[in-house]
Amino acid sequence: MITSPSSLRRSERSRRAILEAALELCTEKGYGRVTVEAIAARAGVSKKTIYRWWPSKSAVILEAFTDALVGTTPFVDTGDIAADLRANVMGAVKLLSTPPYGPAYAGILSEVHHDDALAETVRTKLIDPRFEEAVDRLRRAQEQGQIPPDADLPLAVEMLYGPVYYRHVLRKPVQDEETIAALVAHVLRALGAPPEP
Q1: Domains of the chain, first to last
Q2: At a CB cut-off of 8 Å and minimum separation 6, what does 3 contact?
Q3: In Å, how far from its chain's centre is CA 96?
Q4: C-alpha–C-alpha distance, residues 44 and 119, integer Å
Q5: At 192, is the secondary structure helix, strand, or coil?
Q6: Sign of the dihedral through C-alpha 135, 102, 58, 48
Q7: What is the dihedral of CA 5, 71, 129, 120, to 10 degrees?
């Protein structure tokens, strides 16, 4: 069967409505009380439509969170690795501290401990691609001479973003711009990068 352009538009419209409904319900009810039935009712679609595209409510909410994270925290290259890392980490902190995204992601993280399929999806759809993008950005800085050639880039990514997720999971106060600047400076110093002018 050939899909017409109008049906493709309807599918995308339905997908966006479902993702928005899931996030709205997370804000209103909390992650644990959101159901596929409620998402379907809010989005104006059938449960069958949701299950055709996602295996669970967690998968719906994960896609909504991933879309938001990718859209608000691109790995730009201005030629200044310190500034670019500060902007990226700050974007992640702001997203995680803003409803519905922070509570939605906390709910997903609570599910991965007893849902192996969701854990795998989180790794393959969110964590691994973002990790590789971060390593690629650091590699470009390395090629530009801003980071030494022997620096352990994957470890640097964990050093940069580990504190963000640690604070989020434990519901500690979020980092401010000054703290993030200190974190980025410390990680770059640990890599052997020359100090900022």
Answers
A1: 5-54 (1.10.10.60), 60-191 (1.10.357.10)
A2: none
A3: 8
A4: 29
A5: coil
A6: negative
A7: -80
Residue type at 98 in one-letter notation = T
Q: Mind spelling out the 3-state secondary structure of the chain?
A: CCCCHHHHHHHHHHHHHHHHHHHHHHHHHCHHHCCHHHHHHHHCCCHHHHHHHCCCHHHHHHHHHHHHHHHHCCCCCCCCHHHHHHHHHHHHHHHHCCCCHHHHHHHHHHHHCCCHHHHHHHHHHHHHHHHHHHHHHHHHHHHCCCCCCCCCHHHHHHHHHHHHHHHHHCCCCCCCHHHHHHHHHHHHHHHCCCCCC
User: pLDDT per position in the chain (197 positions), as tens?
Assistant: 444 344 445 588 999 999 999 999 998 998 989 999 999 999 999 999 999 999 999 999 999 999 999 998 999 999 999 999 999 999 999 999 988 898 899 889 988 988 999 999 999 999 999 999 999 999 999 999 999 999 999 999 999 999 998 998 888 998 999 999 999 999 999 999 888 76
DSSP state of 79: S
Contacting residues for 136 by C-beta, under 8 A, at least 6 apart: 75
- Distance between CA atoms of 117 and 122, rounded to whole angstroms? 9
Predicted structure pTM score: 0.85
Q: How far apart are the first and last CA of the chain?
A: 61
